[in-house]
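User: Type I restriction modification DNA specificity domain-containing protein, Alkalispirochaeta americana:
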Amino acid sequence: MEISTHTQLSDESAWSPLSHHAQVLRAPLFKSESTQGSHIFHVISIMDFPPAGYLPEPARTVSLPTGAERARQYTVKPYDVLITAVGTIGQITIVPEKCPDNWIPATNMFVVRFRENQKDKGRAYYGLMKSDFGARILQELSHGSSIKLISKKAFSRVPLPPCTDDLLAYFITLWEQQEDLYTRSQKLLQEALQVYQAVPELARKGA
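Assistant: Predicted structure for Type I restriction modification DNA specificity domain-containing protein:
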């Protein structure tokens, strides 16, 4: 499937800033506080990002005071796109549909949340930023000598092509291809890891 002529990424006449389409969030640092009645939150880190597909359950947890209202302001929602913006720039993942309400992002990443049609636009944006186009944009935005980082303000101003039906369909097709290939690769990996389990047990000499 190809992008039709009127949705080519090179045509920038109708592009508009990311902030026109989505909310961009960056969470503060949350430290664990072991108090009676505290709530457990899973903190999303770059180590949780899979090579492809949806984000799995984050490994690290923090214990926050009862209520933890500030943390709840930053819990991720289905089809949020997460992009690392400090240190290792440009790692990308997307939140699954069935996401608990206690996952919060680490402070080194942006959360991009589309205001409408989150599922299709989220997957399309994920694909766009995974492409060479997205990698180039993130590289151009990054600055800093020792630790690279991207300004939230500059990131929010990045122009995006119009979300036409053709463009969305194109990236959704690519998403489905990626999901299929990644699922098959995981199955092949499991098969590869089990190859030597077929070797019969050898009796130790002299036993």
